[in-house]
Amino acid sequence: MSSTIESAEHKALRTAVAALGQRYGREYLARVAREGGHPDELWADAAKLGYLGVNLPEEHGGGGGGIAELAIVLEELGAAGCPLLMMVVSPAICGTVIARFGTDDQKRTWLPGLADGSRTMAFGITEPDAGSNSHRITTTARRDGDDWILTGRKVFISGVDIADATLIVGRTEDARTGRLKPCLFIVPRDTPGFGRSVIDMELQAAEKQFELTLDEVRLPASALVGDEDAGLLQLFAGLNPERIMTAAFAIGMGRYALARAIEYAKTRQVWKEPIGAHQAVAHPLAQAHIELELARLMTQKAAALYDAGDDMGAGEAANMAKYAAGEACVRAVDQSVHTLGGNGLTREYGLGSLITASRVARIAPVSREMILNFISHQTLGLPKSY
User: Residue 161: which of 68, 53, 89, 73 has the closest Cα?
Assistant: First the structure.
């Protein structure tokens, strides 16, 4: 089956998840965020239905599917107005990395909980001075007998307060070359020396952002994920699903905003007919719909390549999907707010806050400029500027 035409199973999954999303919706998520809570009820229901672990191996309690299925779940929840950001981090990044590279013990310890939603994991790569440049990461891990000692800082790490552990990207010294190479470590939330402080964000979201400090954090040998020499491979095995899921997140948000604007344009009357009859209103909404559909197509391609084991092909497609979805989301939200005029900024219609939220898809987990760099170098073969 071509990845461009959805299977009956995928369509059925969309319909089922959309029904769950409709039971909660935008108002639920907005209320949870206002009250400083977490969308625990929705998370639990999604878990009970098998949606959170749909991409994880069946032998560890997952659905045995791939990132394609997990992306559908997130997109449809987003289109209903209640996306779960921790889906990007816990099952997509951390679950994937552990399923692919973890030891048998790590798989047994973490995957069933990640699959049934009873445990969550955060992901720590970004640093104050390195952004997402894995070559400039200063968080280091050194051996001390059988243990590891981690020291460093991370910033803009989502959901650390609710996560049972954080998958931290550090760097270790290569015994042969003396150069530093990336490695991933599982750091439980209450580990001594592992500190966190909330970053005060303009963005109103249930998932808070944190700055982390690792002050001589002592970890057992079993905290290292997979093979010490395969760090970069393992890292990108987590970053490609992160980009695909961010694209799904953005497409869902864009679809949600667009649906509100279309509804409004069909019923809002200023002269004789609804405002949606005017091309100046209708055409930009049609354009936004086209751009979201195109972004979804690339997201499906990226997920299909990733699930087929083509990491190189998936890397290129995942970056393109994330770029396209971020741009489409921002434009869809902007046009939707504009269609409603003043009403687009009222709490009643719930679109104003998406102006800030949609910007996240352009910035995180990698900026659109860095994606353009990637495509320039990797795809077009142009020389590097850095």
Answer: 89
Q: Residue 148 burial by CB count (10 A; 0-12/13-18/19+): exposed, middle or buried?
A: buried
**Coil, helix or strand for 240?**
helix
Q: What phi, psi does 170 have (nearest 5°)?
A: -120, -175
CA distance 17 to 51: 8
pTM of the predicted protein model: 0.96
124, with CB counted inside 10 A (0-12, 13-18, 19+), is: buried
Greatest CA separation for the chain: 80
CB contact at 8 A, 218 and 188? no
Q: What is the mean pLDDT of residues 287-306?
A: 98
Average pLDDT over residues 191-217: 94
Q: Is the peptide bond before 365 cis (omega within 30 degrees of 0)?
A: yes
Residue 60: how many other CB atoms lie within 10 Å: 20
Please, which residues have CB within 8 angstroms of residue 265's CB and are 6 or more apart in sequence? 274, 275, 276, 281, 282, 285, 339
Looking at residue 385, its pLDDT comes to 87
pLDDT at 52 over 50: yes
Do 24 and 82 contact (CB within 8 A), yes or no? yes
209: Cβ–Cβ under 8 A, 6 or more apart, which residues?
156, 157, 158, 198, 199, 201
To the nearest 10°, the Cα dihedral for 361, 380, 130, 84? 20
Question: What is the reported pLDDT for 2?
Answer: 53
Residue range 53-109, pLDDT digits in tens: 999 999 999 999 999 999 999 999 999 999 999 999 999 999 999 999 999 999 999
